[in-house]
Amino acid sequence: MHVFSLEKKIRMRRKILIPPISPAKAKRRTIVLDLDDTLTVLGDHRHATLPCYCMKAVFDRAVFHTHRRYLKEFLVFAADRFELILWTAGTKGYADVAVQKIFETVGRSDVFDHVIARDPAWFNISETSWYDKTLEQLGRPIERVIMFENAPVVVPMSNCVMVQDLLFRMREGPKTVEAAEDATLENAKYLLERWDEELDAAAFLKREASLGYLTAETFRQIQTNRPLAGYSLSILPVKPKAVAASKL
Fold first, then answer.
1. What is the mean pLDDT of the chain?
2. Rg of the chain's alpha carbons, rounded to an integer?
3. For the chain, what percent of residues have pLDDT higher than 70?
4. Three-state SS at 175
5. Can you say whether the dihedral through the CA atoms of 51, 183, 229, 12 is positive or negative?
6. What are the E-state strand segments in the chain?
7. How far, CA to CA in Å, does 141 sit from each of 6, 121, 135, 172, 212?
8. Judging by DSSP bridges, how do beta strands 114-116 and 83-87 pair with one another?
9. Using CA atoms, how far apart are residues 43 and 60, in angstroms rounded to an integer?
10. 3 state DSSP class of 185
């Protein structure tokens, strides 16, 4: 009990990473998005059909940033309905360039209310531990926050939707899915459309898993290999009847 109490006090002393929510958006819930391998992917090759930008200004060589299918539609939808936060383990210089390229794809520069980049206030890696993204550090009511992430680093995981790493070619079960056919962000939009105001985030995600829209899975914490319960979103298109089922 003493150890738990001490850990809790340490968490409570962690720095809040962003300003309070703006009065104009005070009634909105908060969506947090990871960047690399969730919204975008870095690679040595340019994708043939998806939005793709050269990041030579950051890496001093031809490295390409590919944007996930449906990124524009998803961000426009989310920005118009939620407070939207981008949280990346990348450096500020990298994040600044990546965000500008996202703005080019979306066609507007107001989609993110805040961008959190690598900072000692939250980012720390050692031989025995790995960084985490503790949602309490946002200073928002935790029951009003959902994060989309590709790695099991979110605390608490009950408020996280895990997505498959963006690759040019992905697999789900026996099926192979090309990046140009990836339905992840389309499914994420449908999911958020179903988030009822009266349901807190964890209860909502639990309900969606019980309906089969999300998959309840056990992930492994990086470094410690500790099991973490969470939810994942499919890369395959959602069937319309599943969307309707959540409204019962």
1. 90
2. 18
3. 91
4. strand
5. positive
6. 30-33, 40-43, 52-54, 64-67, 83-87, 114-116, 133-134, 145-149, 154-155, 160-162, 169-172, 175-178, 215-220, 227-232
7. 22, 20, 9, 34, 27
8. parallel
9. 14
10. helix
Does the structure show a pLDDT above 80 at 234? Answer: yes
Q: What are phi and psi of 145, to 5 degrees?
A: -125, 130
Residue type, 204: F
User: Which residues make Cβ contacts (< 8 Å) with residue 11, sequence separation at least 6?
Assistant: 134, 136
| CB 166, CB 233: distance < 8 Å | no
139: left (phi over 0), alpha (psi -120 to 50) or beta: left
Q: What is the pTM of this model?
A: 0.90
Cα–Cα distance for residue pair 234/248, rounded to 1 Å: 21
How far is Cα 153 from Cα 151, in angstroms, rounded to an integer? Answer: 6
217-244: average pLDDT: 82
Alpha carbon distance 222, 228 (integer Å): 10
Let me know the angle formed at the C-alpha of 178 by 237 and 245, rounded to the nearest 5 degrees: 10
Give phi and psi for 84, each to the nearest 5. -120, 125
Structural domains in the chain, sorted by start = 27-245 (3.40.50.1000)
Per-residue confidence band for 222, with pLDDT thresholds at 50, 70 and 90: confident
| pLDDT > 70? residue 246 | no
Residue 62, pLDDT score: 84
